[in-house]
Each structure stands twice: as structure tokens, then as C-alpha cells.
Specification:
Elements: H1 6-12, H2 17-23, E1 35-37, E2 42-51, H3 53-62, E3 66-67, H4 73-83, H5 89-95, E4 99-107, E5 111-116, E6 128-129, E7 149-152, E8 160-163, E9 169-176
Parallel strand pairs: 4-9
Antiparallel strand pairs: 1-2, 2-9, 3-9, 4-5, 4-7, 5-6, 7-8
The chain binds calcium ion.
Residues 139-141, 143, 147, 161-163 line the site of calcium ion.
């Protein structure tokens, strides 16, 4: 019987960008215009419109979603791949390869214990603890004492930085299908 060593095959034939693109296949289960990622079991949509953190969260919530939550290294890996999708290149360039997440200080800018706070509406407002983190080296620094809102910062690392709400950024919306 012939045995296929998948790991070896992957080394010989690393996944192409086209294959990555395919991995984010659209499914009927995701909200319209969202892309499904089978690794994380989440649907994603980049809103290529720059807005404050609070307005960006409202925009995601209006689509039945919330700004992205990077809860694990596997989520981070998916975000790194997401940023390299050929179909998103134009929008990613416009967005500067950065976008808001659901992360915010508990009570910015005085109490910057960071949590995930995905929903604006009172009935759905929850504070989820940030167990996994992927901060950039010197972050969070609460620069100028006015920060407290987390964006996914950079290509290749998808690491994080805190910024003031008033900074205008794109947002990556997400729906957890699990
Ligand atoms: Ca900062």
C-alpha cells in the first residue's frame, strides 16, 4: 500500500496564495460578504472604511458581527494569512494593513486592564478576559495617557498596539460559528 507523507508533501509543495485564498472560502452559513475560515471556524469581513473604534464596533454589530477577537496563536496565524489574501490586497493597502479589534481597556484611559468587549448594545455587552495576548514589543503603552483601544497592527505578525478611540482605522468584523 502506498503511504502519503502529508508533512513531506507540504514541504515540497508549500501552500500557494491561491490555496490560502481558497481556504477562506465563502459559505452559506456566514453572513453575506463574510469569508469562512475553517481553521478558526469564524467568518471574517474587512470593512475598508476608516472610523473610530466605537463607530467601527457599531458597524460590525450592525452586520450581526463584532470586531475581531484574537484569542489564540491559531487566530493570529489566520489573521496573518488573511492580510495576504490577493483578493484583499487593494483594501488592505488602503487600510495600511491594520484594523481595529474588539480589545479595549476596562475603563480607558485610567484603567487599562485589557478585555474583549465585542458588543455595544447593553443586552449583549460582555467583558471577555484577554487570556492570550500578542502585543508589539513596547505595547500597550497608553501613549499620552489617552489610549485604551486595541488594533491589529502589522503584516507578518498581526501583533497589537493600543491607540485612542479617535484614531481612524478600518475594522475586521468576525462571527464565531462554533
Ligand atoms: Ca500604544
Amino acid at each position: 500500500m502506498e503511504f502519503h507523507d502529508d508533512a513531506k508533501l507540504c514541504q515540497l509543495y508549500p501552500p500557494s496564495l491561491a490555496a490560502l485564498n481558497k481556504a477562506f472560502r465563502k459559505t452559506a452559513e456566514c453572513p453575506s460578504d463574510f469569508m469562512y475560515d475553517h481553521q478558526t471556524g469564524k467568518c471574517y469581513k474587512l470593512i475598508a472604511k476608516k472610523a473610530t473604534w466605537l463607530d467601527s464596533r457599531l458597524a460590525c454589530n450592525a452586520l450581526g458581527s463584532h470586531p475581531v477577537i484574537a484569542a489564540s496563536s491559531s487566530d493570529t496565524k489566520t489573521l496573518i494569512n488573511f492580510m495576504e489574501l490577493p483578493s484583499l490586497a487593494t483594501n488592505m493597502t488602503y487600510c495600511g494593513y491594520t484594523f481595529w479589534s474588539s480589545g479595549m481597556g476596562f475603563s480607558p484611559p485610567t484603567n487599562l486592564t485589557y478585555v474583549w468587549r465585542p458588543y455595544a448594545t447593553k443586552s449583549k455587552d460582555v467583558y471577555l478576559p484577554m487570556k492570550y495576548t500578542n502585543w508589539d514589543l513596547t505595547q500597550p503603552d497608553n501613549a499620552g495617557g489617552i489610549e485604551g483601544f486595541v488594533h491589529i497592527k502589522a503584516r507578518k505578525s498581526a501583533n497589537w498596539n493600543d491607540l485612542p478611540n479617535s484614531n481612524l482605522l478600518c475594522v475586521l468584523c468576525e462571527v464565531d460559528m462554533d
